[in-house]
What we know:
The complex is a heterodimer. By secondary structure, chain A is an alpha/beta fold.
Amino acid sequence: MKTKTLLSSTLALGLIILSSCATRTVTRIDPDKQTDVSGRWNDTDNKIVAEDMVAQSIDKNWRTEFEKLKTRKPVVIVGRIKNNTSEFIDPIAIIKQIESAYVNSGKVRVVATADERKELREEREDQQIFASEESRKKWGKEKGADFMLNGVLYSVTDEYKKDKIVAYQVDFELIDLETNEKVWMGQSKIKKEIKN
Amino acid sequence: MKLKPLIWACLGGSMLFLIAACSQKTLHQAEINRHLYSGDVKGAYAIMNKNPEKWERGKNTLLYYLERGTLAWMLGEHQESKDYFMMSDYFIEDYYRNYANEALALFTNDKVKEYRGENHERILFHYYQMLNFMDMGENENALVQARRLNLELNRLKDRHKNNTKRYSRDAFAYVMIGLCFEANGDAENAFVAYRNAERIYSEDYLTNFKMDPPSQLISDLLRLAYQMGYNADLDHFQKKYKRQYNPQTDRGGNFVFFWNTGLVSIKEENRFEFVIQSVNGDGWVTFYNSDLGLSIPVYISGSNDPNSGFNDLRFIAASLPRMVGRGSLFTSATIELDSNAKQIAMSLAEPVSAIANKELNDRFLEEVGKMLARVTAKKMAEMAARKESEGAGTIIGLLNFFTERADTRSWETLPDQIFYTRQPLSPGQHQVKLNAAGPQANQQFTIPVNMPKYGYFFEGFHTLQPATTGLTR
């Protein structure tokens, strides 16, 4: 009997050791699928926030009144999204999602951000020397933005032992570049429960 | 009854497995240390670069990240250091118990468990990471790191909720958080962090490590209290520290300099013999060691079963980790900025070795209890097997001999102590002189500093020389 016990415990021990040697598999998945592995901020959150923000802001007074007054679509620049959370979040990824949601709505025009403009101007400068005259792009034709969108991303973490809840909030403001008036303000929230 | 060949094969096989699992050397730390004792950081770093994949998949993944991050930081490779500390950060955040390892540790020792880091280690890597970010001009990320550190401090507090005598609060962490808030223009939160730091220094650090709050911290508290018009706080701290704040002479400081000195205490294996003093019928057994003056009751499952082999035991010999100090050759320092030859004293902010010692002492009884239960269970299995067959008993005895090891892993490239100071410094190139002094030696080090046009700059420097000579690991 004892021999049997000894044998089974030895085998169990062997299994325990072997169980820690797992192999890695990789599978391609739908990029639109909501995925959560670590619980940290990820591409799904970028998408949710950007789409929510654009849906909230697009049909509000600031745009309809602007169109009535100027008889054209407003031009928006996506400015800065400040990261006030306790996670490393790349604001560029959110900015790109917002730009793409605005452009795809067909109701707003979007111009390049400050960093992109710098690069574009260098390229245009280059064209003045190296490009043929008919293809050369002119200076002073840039489209100036009417509104600037800024945002601040906050997070509050509540955790104890293995339970963790993270509440994210992004506050957006759309500001009239001529008058500094805040023409629209909105909020997007995400709350996550992370269990280990 | 004779054991069948299959059983022998199983026993032999598991023994090989277990020996392999337990003999995994802790990252060639002894070799890394030998290079560091002679000041050869590059040589130490080269060792980390040998087969990195092997280390990253082992039980010492976190240790590998921490040590590599620190050595890269010492060499000024901030991007690489940042990457490794970020991996440490996510590793610590994501780690949840690997039950297979926990079960294995019951049979063998703690060393086969994934290394999760001591509490102070989980705090201090944030310090290096903030220095990396500030050095790379990523102030906003340094602030994100500060918020992450704040979460870790909350976890530490939660772990030791009912025991304020343990290392459950870290004052230096709040100093770092405060500095990052200030560097990002948030004086309000900086003041709150400094005030927390002052409280912990004057309560925990004074009691446990006999040290006062850093003089630099008091200066910062007074200045911010004055700037924000917190007159009650200004009065309180002026009275408490017998200092008068003078806004005319105080200019704050955008250059924050950290000095790491020496190397942190390391763990060594120590063998103890415990006599079985008394046996209670309900499974509780009292063990006694005269060197430690310790009498400790431990619940030993099966100790009241006459067939368990327990009755044949008289004493238990086992290994426990013990701290060995390496200290620092230099124990105080001043800095000279090239613009004026004034000597500015550095304030002690974090007694790292003392904290590491405290952490191990705090849980010594816990470690002893765990170890006694484990070793006794293994001895009982050996005795029971011997009764059945001498051969099986010998194999289990050998298995026990090879697997019983104290867990001596720790982040060994940490300094013995951390000092800091801050001063105003104009943009551009500077040669900052660090005058390090100790009972046996004095030495001047020149550190080039490139101050940015605007804002703050954090610089750190590590003098590695330990106080003890002839260290073997």
